[in-house]
Design a protein that fits this description.
This protein has two domains: 37 residues; 109 residues, no CATH class. It is 18% helix and 39% strand. It has four helices and eight strands; from the N terminus they run αααββββββββα. Strands 1, 2, 3, 4, 5, 6, 7 and 8 form an eight-stranded parallel beta sheet that branches. The radius of gyration is 18 Å and the shape is globular. It has 184 residues and is α/β, with parallel strands linked by helices. It starts with a helix and ends in an 8-residue tail after the last helix.
Length: 184
């Protein structure tokens, strides 16, 4: 779906073609059906100075104290491992470029937290997390109905910490000007 949106933004698809292809993408059952949607698109013009983004197989966080935050437009790898002692890991998936339909996250957090900031269309499964002296919290609105574009499967262990799944928050300026919450 992201490739189709980029193609429409580059002028390689009309608005009508984009709507038709997105509808097919949402109902596709196989990868072959998805591949057929982008097979006939002309190649995107790339700047010589900009290298294409590479999809990594593994993104590993190993921290002792402190925290790590992955946000903005980043390419989601095939798998994530987080080994954190006395710190926090925050993965913001709202603007992330999704490469695979599932994202396994293996965590080992002691005295810290794992926060997943999601958008509608991302489902999170935390059934395989062993928690000792901690909690798993799904904040309000994380179950909004939308076609699932990414399934996050969290496994591992949390000792004396927490896993929080939530939607993005408003900035102070958005709150002050009474703008609606994202994905409200």
């Amino acid at each position: 779906m992201e490739q189709l949106r980029v193609a429409a933004g580059d002028g390689r698809l009309t608005a009508e073609e984009l709507d038709e292809r997105l509808e097919v993408a949402l109902t596709a059952r196989t990868y072959a059906e998805l591949a057929a949607l982008t097979a006939d698109l002309p190649a995107a013009r790339q700047s010589a100075a900009v290298a294409p983004r590479q999809v990594r197989d593994l993104l590993r966080f190993e921290r002792r104290g402190g925290g790590v935050r992955q946000s903005g437009q980043w390419v989601v790898p095939a798998r994530i491992e987080a080994d954190v002692r006395g710190g926090s890991v925050k993965l913001d998936l709202t603007e992330a470029v999704v490469s695979y339909p599932t994202l396994p996250i293996d965590v080992d957090v002691r005295g810290g937290s794992l926060t997943l900031v999601i958008r509608p269309g991302i489902s999170v499964d935390t059934n395989d997390v062993a928690i000792a002296g901690g909690s798993v919290k799904f904040r309000a609105g994380t179950d909004k109905p939308a076609p699932v574009t990414l399934e996050v499967q969290v496994s591992g262990q949390i000792r004396g910490g927490s896993v929080v799944v939530r939607l993005p928050r408003r900035t102070f300026r958005q709150w002050l000007t009474r703008q609606p919450k994202p994905y409200a």
